[in-house]
Amino acid sequence: ERPVTLTVLAERKAAGEPVVMVTAYDYPSALIADQAGVDLVLVGDSAANVVLGYDSTIPVSVDELLVLTKAVRRGLRRALLVADLPFGSYEASDLEAVHTAQRFVKEGGADAVKLERGGTSIDRARAIVAAGIPVVGHLGLTPQAATALGGYRVQGRSADQAEQLLADALALQNAGCFAIVFEAVPAAVTELITSRLDCLTIGIGAGSSTDGQVLVWHDLLGITQGSLAKFVRTFADVHTETLRGVTAYADAVRAREFPAAEHTYAIPADELADLTT
Ligand code: KIV
Ligand code: NA
């Protein structure tokens, strides 16, 4: 099967064929994403929330994400693997950004890295691209900057904000990003921006006009507990099925109904006789 490359993705955009991206954080999920024919798999720093139980993406470290990236790498054969650079691992200097990106490629096996925001991240993106590593941008609701943005809320709702988004997107493209994720941006704004860009646009809560879509694994499968963002559709109810399975196991143990004979090893009768006499 033909692996997904930047060339394949550019061909998809040119042909108007939507590109599918999903997050994954471990080996079995990566196997499934590949089997499902997903094009891009993102080891998102959303792992902080959905896998590690932090209440934001701020605390997650490079070392924590590297463990997950390596596991996902082992499960992928076809999809392109993108790794998020976590908060505090790339902002301070081009040198820091290149060093961290190299760790995700060299140790983690990532094909590309993703960083958040415009501003200084435009220079960081350019430096990483210059080091030979493909980069994905991320604009709109950028969770690493949630406090500065006034919370987890839609971005680009004023003409000024929308123009800033377009300027940042053009600057990231100019810096060499092959794709940009737009999160929680009004559909009309993303549509306008997509029409002005040559690089791939990937939306999450950004309408249907982007070249591709991305969702968080635990959200789309109904694993995430509690309230979900407006932009999530739940395509399966894995929480209910998992709870059913674990509860059934606990009930079976308590009823001494599990393990049954077929789960049990035997000893030859003569050996058992020797043992008991
Ligand atoms: O970390 C993440 O899951 C992401 C996607 C929502 C784009 O950055
Ligand atoms: Na992220």
Could you please describe the fold and organization of this structure?
With 277 residues, the chain is an alpha/beta fold. The protein has 2 domains: 6-236, Alpha-Beta Barrel (TIM Barrel); 241-276, no CATH class. Helix content is 42%, strand content 13%. An 8-stranded parallel beta barrel has the order 1-2-3-4-5-6-7-8, surrounded by 5 helices. α2 (27-35) packs across α4, α5 crosses α6 (120-130) and α6 (120-130) packs parallel to α7. The longest helix is centred in the middle third of the chain and has 17 residues, at 159-175. The mean pLDDT is 97. It binds 3-methyl-2-oxobutanoic acid and sodium ion (NA). Sodium ion (NA) binds at residues 44-46, 84.
- Alpha-beta classification: alpha/beta
Overall pLDDT: 97
Poorly predicted regions are: none
Q: Which small-molecule ligands are present, each listed once? A: 3-methyl-2-oxobutanoic acid, sodium ion
Per CATH, the superfamily of the largest domain is Phosphoenolpyruvate-binding domains
Strand tally is 8
The helicity comes to 40-55%
| Proportion of residues in extended strands | 5-15%
What is the CATH C-level name of the largest domain?
Answer: Alpha Beta
* Overall CATH architecture of the largest domain: Alpha-Beta Barrel
The H-and-E topology, N to C, reads as HEHEHHEHEHEHEHEEHHH
* Rough outline: elongated
Strand order of the largest sheet: 1-2-3-4-5-6-7-8
